[in-house]
Amino acid sequence: MGRGVIAGLGVGSLMTVVGLGAASLMAPVPQAPRVLALPVPDVGSAGDAAGDPTIVTVPQGSEFARSGTDRVPQLPTPQSTPVGAAAPQVAAPVATPDPKLAVVDPGARPEAGMPAPAPQTAPETPMAALDALPVPEAPVPVPPPGEVETPQLPQAEAEATRPATPAAPPQIEPAPTPAPVLAPVPPAEIVLLPDGTPARPDLVPAPAEPVPETPTMPAEAMDRPQVFTLDTPSPGFTEAPGVLTNRLPRIGDAPAAQDDPGVQGAGALSDYAAPFSHDDARPLYSVVLVDPGVEAGGLDRNTLKTIGFPVTIALDPMRAGAAEAARDYRAAGFEVAILAAPLPQGATAADLEVALESWRAAVPEAVALVEPARPVLQNNRLLAQQMTRILAQDGLGLVTQDQGLNAAAQLATSEGLPQAVLWRVLDANRDRAAAIERTLSRAVFEAQRDGHVAVMLTAWPESVAGLMNWAQGATGSVALAPVSALALQSVN
Fold it and tell me: Which residues are within 8 A (CB) of 285 and not within 5 positions of it... i.e. 6 or more apart?
């Protein structure tokens, strides 16, 4: 590879030399410059003495030998000043002294011939004052610490050096007040009667009462603890009205009566619940049937009262004739429940308490409060707390939907409130009777798995038809029960 590089460089150099030589041979020969003879102008005697004209070499194409064409420039004539017109004379400014400035006299300038002033000599310092130099005072000896003694001055000098004390002003003593002169009191006379009794008993001095002797305790008794006993015990708060005392158990007292857990739910739930007995192992199946009224498209009450198995009728407290419908169903042997009505937005616990009071008045003898298909209270924890507290006071049960967090069911469980949770609303879309029947059969598996189940239906014609068809063959696998039975079962 190195040889190839060197050979290439040699061949390239040779070709470069050959090319440059050929280019030089092919280029034209340059022409010689033209020489022009220009005359030199006369410059006086110097030109005459020069002799022959000077030959100047002019480059080709410079046009240096062209005749001159320059013209003499014509300048404008300056404007002349009119004759006889004199220039204005300007007076020089005269300096006017300012009266506010002080006049300073610079004085006469010294002449050159005046003699210079003689230099002044410094005054001679009197030597007599410096003959006696000051002698420094001798240092005062300082004794070491602890050995300083107070000098003792004579009595006369001490009194002379003591500062004079100003004399106190003389005090004027008040004149003594003369004591009042009392008249002498003659001693009272005691007159004795013949039997020895004084005539004036009030003047006889009373005999002196004997002073009781203070018992003295021996020294051994002083070291022992002393016990004080009150003759009349203080009543304290035992006799105050409205105050309970002695509530703590004492040894020997009879045991207090315990609350029976089977009595939980006492109140409206147990008073108005439909009678039901369950002795076998079949799971409980509850149906909550909402009666919307004939005006809304539901079946009439006479048709619904022909249902031959236990159901719970839920009534809207805001509908017309809710109280009459509740009494009619109760007379037919059905239990009724309150269907929670919508509350205004931003309702408080006080609003809920007023609403529950009016709902109970509209649906008398109700056993529970039932949440509708779209829950109203169960997912609002603040309202749910107030609701469970009121229901527990009134002895009502609670039926909620299996939706959301369901805070109401959690609170009811923690407080021991009877409750039931609905598995599903079967006719939320107004389904046909066949679809309702299939969904009811599907709920049977939920009851067998959990031991109980609760569903909700509305008394639409299709929904009631599906319920009646399903109930004919379902009695063998589940036990149809009112919702109060499931609520009581949750706390027992």
Answer: 443, 444, 447, 452, 453, 454, 474, 478, 479, 480, 481
